[in-house]
Amino acid sequence: MEKNVVMVVNPISGAIDKTEFINATKLFAKKVNCKLYIYKTSGKNDIANIKSLYDTYSPERIIIAGGDGTIKMVAEAIEKDNVILGVLPAGSSNGLAADLDLPETLEENLSVAFLNKYLEIDVIEINNEKSMHLSDLGLNAELIKNYEKSLIRGKWGYALQILTTIIDLEEPFKATITANNKTIECLARMIVIANAKKYGSGIIINPDGEMNDGKFELVILKNLDLIVLGKIITGNMPINSDDIEIISTDKATITTNSPVSFQMDGEYCGTKTRLDIKISPKRIKVAIP
Ligand SMILES: Nc1ncnc2c1ncn2[C@@H]1O[C@H](COP(=O)(O)OP(=O)(O)OP(=O)(O)O)[C@@H](O)[C@H]1O
């Protein structure tokens, strides 16, 4: 019997034309006897529209051609269920794909996305929104805000914004963190709420992060001078220094003394002074090699 598959395509992600993604997916779906319904995101009402497609067609899989932000939208649209998400990485940052060790080529990724192996990953709920990969308060969110405002998309736009953001660096913020029945206060440049290990750029920020262990980590970057930044970028996270503290937990609250920029899975979410965070274990099925 033919199975239903929904394909969610983000036409603008990564500044990549998606024609090849759509054509290759149509062919593959036919080959494996699936009926394909294609939805192109518009940036408006996408979550509600995907939910309605999901309710109408009860797809066995949802194939996603986009970046982490597009995967997040699909995750928001589906309830805990039997649907498997297949990812065709096509964003400017493909952090989840990097953490899942997805292959390089479209053909290989189609095989992964349509075939049977999958991982049930945890989802982090932050102020009742879902994050599958990495969210953070502070410097990186500031960077993403500047990037989203800029007219240059893709990797170059992102690189340009690193420079602008670091030049305009504000004072560190004061954070109060409650987790594992303890409360700590600290000054921080950035706090990462991590389900996984690395950013789409390949930079490892949470060396022990596992997406299916029922826990998340708070990676507190207290100092981010050029030396610490250099160590992180070159893959030598100084985890045993006073500059970094990592807390592993399943529930936490973070409050800050002033509004701090916040991003979830690469999407800028404004400034926040309070985050209520909890893990939702094994919440979503994602196809893996
Ligand atoms: N047709 C569209 N026009 C404008 N924005 C869109 C459209 N479709 C989706 N979006 C927006 O794209 C974002 C998700 O992009 P995603 O993270 O998947 O890719 P990306 O390449 O990392 O993004 P970016 O475009 O920021 O480089 C969401 O904010 C969503 O609202």
From TrEMBL:
Q: Which Gene Ontology molecular function entries are recorded, alphabetically? A: ATP binding; kinase activity
Q: Which UniProt key words apply to this protein?
A: ATP-binding, Kinase, Nucleotide-binding, Transferase
InterPro entries cross-referenced by the UniProt entry: ATP-NAD_kinase_N, Diacylglycerol_kinase_cat_dom, Lipid_Phosphate_FormReg, NAD/diacylglycerol_kinase_sf, YegS/DAGK_C
Q: What Gene3D superfamilies does the database record attribute to this sequence? A: 2.60.200.40, Probable inorganic polyphosphate/atp-NAD kinase, domain 1 (3.40.50.10330)
Does the record bear Nucleotide-binding in its keywords? yes
PANTHER family hit by this protein: LIPID KINASE YEGS, SPHINGOSINE KINASE
Instruction: Name the SUPFAM superfamilies for this protein.
Output: NAD kinase/diacylglycerol kinase-like (SSF111331)
| Location of the DAGKc domain | 1-130
* Family matches, as Pfam families: DAGK_cat, YegS_C
Q: Which GO terms describe its cellular component?
A: plasma membrane
Q: Signal peptide: which range, if any?
A: none
**Top-level taxon of the source organism:** Bacteria
Any idea what this protein is called?
Answer: Diacylglycerol kinase
